[in-house]
Amino acid sequence: MTTKVKEAIKGYEDGIEYIEILVEDNDLAEKLKFRGSPTVLIDGKDFEGRDLVESASLNCRIYENGLP
Q1: Structural domain tally of the chain?
Q2: CA dist 13 to 16, 17, 68, Å?
Q3: Distance CA 18, CA 22 (A)
Q4: Conformation bin of residue 27: beta by default, left when phi > 0, alpha when psi is -120 to 50
């Protein structure tokens, strides 16, 4: 998925701040209100519109329509 995101922003790098965060423990997952891996946020919002989770943890994310 990282490759797809980088391909999608190619040519727009000057106007985009691209950040990858490796969530390796439950403390960071809770701090970030982690929605599961992989997650893509645009302007701090989930690109699928998923709400913040009440109790975050390290987990995988399921995309209903497959990986974007």
Answers
A1: 1
A2: 5, 7, 20
A3: 13
A4: alpha
- One DSSP character per residue, 2-54 reads HHHHHHHTTT-GGG---------SHHHHHHHT---BS--EETTEETT-PPPPS
Question: Measured between alpha carbons, how far is residue 35 from residues 12, 15, 19, 27, 65 in Å?
Answer: 26, 26, 16, 14, 17
Close Cβ partners of 16 (under 8 Å, ≥ 6 residues apart): 9
Structure tokens at 62: 């399921």
Domain of residue 28 covers: 1-68
pLDDT tens sequence across 26-51: 999 999 888 888 888 888 888 888 88
Angle formed at CA 55 by CA 36 and CA 21, multiple of 5 degrees: 40
Q: What's this model's pTM, rounded to 2 decimal places? A: 0.69
